[in-house]
Structures are given as C-alpha cells and as structure tokens.
Predict the structure.
Amino acid sequence: MNVVSGVITQLRQLPGSDQMELVSYTVLNPLGGPTVRMDITLNETNSGSIDDEGRVTLDLSTGQGYTFEVSSWKEMNEKLGEAVKAEFEKWPKEARVWELNIIKPLAGALNPQEFAVRTHSLARSQQITNATQEEQEEGAVIVGVSFVEDKTGTFPPNDKDMPYLLPSPVDGNDGPFTMNVLFANEVWLKDQLWQLVRDIPGLTNVNMDRDQSGFFSTVKADVGFTVQGRRDTTIRDYERYTFTTYTWPNLDFSGSFKIVHTDDVLVVEWAVECPTKELVVIFHDSLRDYRHDPDFNVSVSVQTELRIKMVGEGDKRGDIEIVPGKVEVNYNARFWGGDHSYINDYVKESFDDYIKPHIDPLVNQMADKVAVMASGIKPFNALRLNSLLFRSDDVATPRLLVTPGELSLLGDLAPKLTTFAVEPLEEKVSAAPGNTVKFHLDPAIGGTVSWSVKGLPDGSTDPEKVGAVGDGVYTPPEVGALTDSYRRVIVTATANGNSSSALVTVVADSVAIYPYFQIANFKSGDNRPRYVLTGGDIKGDLKWAMTSSSKGTVREVEAGDSDLDIPVDKNVRIYESPEKAVGEAGTVDALVHLDGVEVSAGGQTEVIDIVIPWRTTTAGLRTTAQAGGGLKLALYFDNEETGEEDELTPAETLWKVFKGAGQINPTTGIYTPGPNEGPYIIVAGRETPAERTPIWNYAVIPLSHVEEYEAFCAHVRTHNKQGEI
C-alpha cells in the first residue's frame, strides 16, 4: 500500500539528553510516498474460510512480513512494519477487515468453505499448445476453492507443474477467452453420477471407475431379476400354424447398469440376458398336432443419452443442467434347434405374445426410471463463485462449456467492462493551469461515447471539486480544491451499454521527493555511508543532480547496495557521503555542511537536503515561538563548573541559515520567516569567539503542520519516560 498523504516525522534523542532532534520530516503526496508492504494471502485470512454468513474477507492485521519503507535500513523498516501491524490490530473490525463479497450458503448447492489465490504464467506453465512469444507474456490469476464437506487440495508449487488454463478458441476469428471456471471431476461429475443412480431399482455392487486420465468417468452396477415360468394355453395363429400350448421355465436375467461420460454426453445403458433355456411349444397344422422344444435365450437393453448443457441466459444463466434424451428399449430373443426347427421364425414372432408381456413390467419400470433420471439432478450454477472476487452478476459471461473430465466453462471476464479500455488506465496530472489528460478508447468504438467524472471516495460530480471531462479530455480542478495536496477521481467512458474507467490522481506539485532531508555521516576510511532517496513525478522522467555547493554524489543503484532496503517499484537514487571537508575555522561551516540533491521534471525542481555534521554537537538548540510568526533561537549547554544550564546570549552566538527564506537577527537571535517559506528551515549556531571545543548545534525546524509536530514530540517524550519506547 502506497502512502498518499500525511506527514512522516522521525525524532532522535541522544543518550543523556532530553532534547528531541528532528531527523526526518516529509509531507507526503501520491507521487512519491513510501510503501507499506505485507503478505496477506486470502487463504490465511479467517483461517482461509468463508464464514457462516458467506462473507469473504481480508483482514489487514493477519498478514506476515510487514515492512514500512521509510529508511535505508531493512531492520528499521521491518520494526516500523511491525508497528504498523500492531496499529492495524488496534483498529476496530469494521476498519481493518475488508469484505470482498458475500456468497450466501444455499441448501443443496455447492457452498465454498475455503479458497486460495495465486498467479499463473503461461511462459512457465506446461505448454498445451505452441504459444507465440506475445502469448507467452500472458499471466492469469487463479482462485482455488474447496466446498463444504469436500476435501481441500493445494496448488502445485510451480507454474511448470500445471497447464495454462486459458486455451485459445478453435475459431481464430473469435476473441480470446479471458475466463475459465473449472470444476474438478470429483466435485461435479462424481456427484452427478451418484445422483443419477440413486433411484434406479435393483442395483448391486455399485462402483465408480476412472479412465486412463484418472477422471471418474463410469458408474457400473450389477442387476438381476427373475420372470416366473408358466404354461400358456392361449390359442394363436401364425399363418398356417396354430399354437395351442406355450410352456417356458423361470427366466433368470442378469446383467449390468452403466453410465459412461464422454465429452458432453452421459450414455446410460441397462442390459440383461437370461441363459439358454428350453421352450415347449404344442402346435398343429392342417394334418395333426406337434411338439416342438427349441432352445432359446433373451436379452433386453434400455438406453439413452443425457446431454450436459449450460443455460446461457435468463435467471438461470450459468446453471449446468442434464438434458434427457430419447429412451430406447430393445429386445433380442433367439430360438434354435428342436424337432421342428422350420417353425422357429414363428416361435420368435410368438415371443412377443407369450413371454414378452411378462418381462415388460420390469423393463418398462426401468425405462421409466431412466427417462426421468435427469430430472432428479439438481442443477448447479458454475458462475456462483464469481462472488469470491466480484460483486456484479454480470462480471462473467460464458461462451463455451466443455467437459473432457473436469468441467470447464470458458468465456469473458467482465465483458461490459472489457469490451474496450480507457487508455491510459491510470494517470497523474498537476492541478497547475493548462494541464489536461487526453484519453482514448482501445479498440476505438464507433458511435457516441459519453464521458463522466466523479471523485473518490465521496462520489462528487461537482466540476469545481473534481474537474471536468469532455471528448476524452480531462481538465483537473484548481489547486485550492485539493485535499492534502491531491485528489483522486474516476473518469468513465460509456458506449453501447459498455463502460470502462480510468483512475486520475490530481496533485498540487509535479515532483515529489522522499525524504525532504537526510542527516548523514561523512565518509571515513572503509565506512562509506549511503542513503536511499526516492522521487516521483507525473511523466516518469526525473532528472537527478547535486547542487553546485555539494560535496557528496548521487548515483543509480548498484549491485553493492544490497545491504540497503531499496524499494523495487520506485524511482530510486543512492546518495554517497563525502569525506570530511570542514569549512573555514571559526565559522559555522567548520562544523556542519548542507548538500543538496536536485530532483527535476516538467519545469519543477525539488531539493533533498543532506545535513552533514563534521563534529558531534555539544549544545542544545531551543526554539521559542514569537508574536508574528518569528522564532527565537538559543543555544544552551551544561556548565561543568557550575553544574547549571547556561544559555548563550545572541552576542555570543554566530548563526547561519542553511535553508530558509528568512533571516536571523544577530542582536536578538530571532528568526523572521521570509516570503514563500518551505515546510521547514535548517539553521545552525556556534559560540563565538570559540577558544575551546565549540559549543554548537543545528536544527531542522518545521514551519508547516507545527501543532501536529509539537503534539508528536510531547507524545514521544511522555512514552519514552515511561519506558514504552
């Protein structure tokens, strides 16, 4: 998180002294504020769970690796980061816990209980196609979810252990997929298959088998039933033969019930067969009666295909349904042998009249069950998990459902927001007169485009507060409308019912620096003091240079600077201190020096002040506010002879203003601010004449946010005395 406003103040109190020394003071803005970094993985927030109300939350106080990049030293930044974490822990729940969304639990639905988030690189993943160089630069965000009463898995540790899960459309004219909702084979198909078989009667030894890829793809079960034998004396004619008696034994049917998943089809088959039996048929022709005893067997099958379909529109959009198909029933009766095999074709024909009616009730019952089995499956909504990350129901638009094993719902992520993009997506602009930001749409849109702007976070549309936009050109408000020297607004373009937005940060200045000043040690022997400086600007073309009177140097980061805590996403330079080079004896310059690092862009220059004491200070520097805004300055010290605190008179003090537009009256020691003062002044004073170790000190004195600064000093003194710091 980048700090966009406020004041960074750092105090130092030397051992044995009650004086607070200001060593860092910076008024922040969005161009160059330091960063608070922390690792908050969503699956560690609230133990990675979605609570009973379905709230998906992120807690600022439950992360790890907190650091606040305000100094050049990692150890200090980590300590400050822990302080930030401790501060987050003090915040009330409504301030520190961010609700990403709510997924209300639904009875009988897939209700998520845990989730994790990670990024995924195409270039480093298992290649499933020959990706171009441009495609290999793609990356995706993967959200993994486990459901209530299901086991929780984990992501593979490396991108190379997992394929990239955004395939290209088969038709090259179609736009690329930007969304893939995947349901694991075990989550969707295994459950669906069990639902399909639960109402089928007479199943035993039900098993679910995996295919060669390891996916659950087949349900198998044994079936069996018996049709009682009987003697039927119904007389029926079959051309020139008359059947008078039809006798068959018990028919013991056995077989299997099977559901096989292939692509988007579930093939259902119930198939049984009875072993070979002997049939007795009494018949006569025009001459006499005959007895015929052929062998026979019977097989029966009930088959259908269930299609896996996605509802693409309406209230049920995203529902995965099982659509029933036509049920086909097939009998196959075979008759052979016997003393009068020449009539076996008529015996087969008579099967439909004598035996089949006694098998039909069981077969028809099975056919009816198969016909309605799809209606017993409750559809599940593949888009329900949108709410893990997004609030809008229209964020995901599906295009294609494929079910090679896992269920994959491919489509477009936020098409209403990604049909076109406002470019640039994020921009900074100075509130100085004449500055504008020109936006365009990518790709260009035909027809009318309407533009609007609103402020953050209040949603104001008042042009005097948020500026105005027309024909893609944004004009910021005047500087006086800014709060804490900045304002953030959202610029939105709308065309054909689709929209896209960009973030604009309006700033009072076009250049920012951090810190405002740095207290530095001089170089001595192998000790090469270095300090991290950061800058920010609107266009990203900062120029760095030393002021003409400087003795140190400024350079880019080098490999040997790894001991410093260097922000990875800032415009950074390293200041190297000079060797000791004191000024003329008897002057303030013999005790302290001021370097300056110029940071320039867009016609504006800011200077980071580097204060380099040549000697250890030997006095305190007291400031007393005067009527009219002046400051009375005085050096004080402990008199070793009297044991009392003595204060040098103005006549005994030589002062120098290193930074400031005002002057110090040598007679009174009062600093009178000049016109256009900056946020602070830098002064130093020494005893004059000095025939011994000089009594001297320097100070950085804030001129802005004075009340806050004094309150902070009082807070530090109080808690320091109590041993809390």
Observations:
- The longest strand covers residues 295-310.
- The radius of gyration is 42 Å.
- The chain has nine helices and 50 strands.
